[in-house]
């Protein structure tokens, strides 16, 4: 609860001309349902749909705390997100359809919206040479090109519930669109505020090419 209140303070305290389209992940809820569904024999499309439902449940939490400045329901397509952004400062949604992670949805929206900045919030403070949770020799990368990011994430599994610092499809989209991108720890709201305000932050900058 405190984290969500802190997020609300951060978002609503930003300059009024800064607009947000926020795509929520499914987190542990999605992973738990996908794991149970897979154990019961569910196919990958069905498992994806479980994950999408969890992302939209999380979207409702964000919507509930942002009031009248927020599009009133979770968007269910990229087109709906863009329509909502024409009228509301905040637009929130989750997954859209099976086969696309929320990273990929976020990147495709950023491309279509011509976003000034794409921020990918994850569970670590940036991109690393390998998974820092399993490799004590992993080194943090403070800055890299979009093509280097593609190489880094190219081995990610393509199935429901898979995740890395960024989905490979999302990396491809931001590369082709030339979008300025940042990867940082979603729990570090100070760095998030610094990133949005274009100050130095603890994370990884992805430079467009």
Describe the structure in brief.
The protein has 209 residues and is an alpha/beta fold.
Structure characterization notes:
- The chain has 209 residues and is an alpha/beta fold.
- It has a single domain, classed as Carbamate kinase (3-Layer(aba) Sandwich), CATH 3.40.1160.10.
- Helix content is 45%, strand content 14%.
- It contains eight helices and eight strands, in the order H-E-H-H-H-E-H-E-E-E-E-H-H-E-H-E.
- It has helices at 2-13, 27-39, 44-66, 78-85, 102-113, 146-153, 168-177, 189-196; strands spanning 20-23, 90-93, 118-122, 127-128, 140-141, 143-145, 181-185, 204-207.
- The chain has a four-stranded mixed β-sheet with strand order 3-7-8-6.
- The longest helix is centred in the N-terminal third of the chain and has 23 residues, at 44-66.
- The radius of gyration is 16 Å and the shape is globular.
- The N and C termini lie far apart (40 Å).
